[in-house]
Amino acid sequence: xxxxxxxxxxxxxxxxxxxxxxxxxxxxxxxxxxxxxxxxxxxxxxxxxxxxxxxxxxxxxxxxxxxxxxxxxxxxxxxxxxxxxxxxxxxxxxxxxxxxxxxxxxxxxxxxxxxxxxxxxxxxxxxxxxxxxxxxxxxxxxxxxxxxxxxxxxxxxxxxxxxxxxxxxxxxxxxxxxxxxxxxxxxxxxxxxxxxxxxxxxxxxxxxxxxxxxxxxxxxxxxxxxxxxxxxxxxxxxxxxxxxxxxxxxxxxxxxxxxxxxxxxxxxxxxxxxxxxx
Length: 278
Known about the structure:
The protein is α+β, with helices and mostly antiparallel strands and 278 residues long. It is 21% helix and 26% strand.
């Protein structure tokens, strides 16, 4: 087993490989898709090796831990691959100890007692919020709605001016998107009045590329835009991975455990259950 601390595009390649392998192995395991981590890259391209570590077995990534710097005072943390992989949690605890004076958040599925216990050992204790994931069978999707008369969808390849996500993700958002293997500017769409340039709509970030082919199962409701990848697809070269027929329903809720700002207590040797629920 070898530890790797990649930066920049090398980081992007490793985390994408890890999450695509995980999704091929199981359509449900893990909270994050490769496209999510690629979207986070537009905010934090990991220019140093402080915030991400991966472990490779014969060159294949099997686990990792990633801190994403959303702002100087707010970080996200995710353990990827095997959620019980102790070296990843050791990295999380060590990094949390260094990042004093900031809020660090981690999303945990409510049924995942092992991850919750490890998170509590690292100092994550407060349930900041909960939200739900729902799934929709592709055959049950409603028909596409027509745009209002006089409007059309314009791909990024035909748009003029700055990228509409600059205000949210910074001046380098388009440059970094184009470094992502799952980004396709031809599918980066925005509505526009025909013949009349208009201001980008407020929710232009809700562009979605074709989803990864997991049989006919498709994610219907994404997580908040800070973390879920609106302009990236999850398409990879793969065979179909099963098929499940079901009605639209709540799949699960998640605990979002926040490590308290300026928290000073040492990691507890015995996990303490947090209050909170669905």
